[in-house]
Amino acid sequence: MKSKIIILTFALSILLNLCLVVILFYQALNGCAKIADGRIGRLAEDTQIGFFGDSETLFTLPKGLVVRDASATGAGWFEPYRFQIVITSDNEALVDYSINERPPVKQDGEYYSADVTARRLTEGKP
């Protein structure tokens, strides 16, 4: 009886370890939404920024602006070349985080795109 309990415990342990390996493998394939501590770089050219799916320029980021890599990893992530601008300040009131605006209907969870110039060229606009 004691040996059956030991064998059952051993088999259960192996089964749980296999489940853990499968879960970890799935998470590795799924990736992450952004790199937490990405590389630091500078913009190589002036970059026009606009809403996704629109060819109108909202603002332009200047060449030489320091950015951090925030590219998504894993299968299923679109537009894998992402960066973020990190701005620091001692002024707590600089940004109002209480705004509860809804994103525009055409948004896919991201607000801005740096592909405005390419989109404008495909639409035949100057």
Describe the model.
- The chain is α+β, with helices and mostly antiparallel strands.
- The protein has two helices and six strands.
- The termini are far apart.
- The mean pLDDT is about 75.
Mind sketching the topology for me?
Blueprint: H1 2-30, E1 40-42, E2 47-51, E3 59-61, E4 66-69, E5 83-84, E6 112-113, H2 116-122
Antiparallel strand pairs: 1-4, 2-3, 2-6, 4-5
- Describe the sheet with the most strands: 3 strands, antiparallel
The helix content, as a percent range, equals 25-40%
**Poorly predicted parts:** none
Structural class: alpha+beta
Tally the helices: 2
Keywords summarizing the entry:
single chain; 126 residues; alpha+beta; 2 domains; three-stranded antiparallel beta sheet; 2 helices; 29% helix; elongated
Question: How is this structure best summarized?
Answer:
This protein is an alpha+beta fold and 126 residues long.
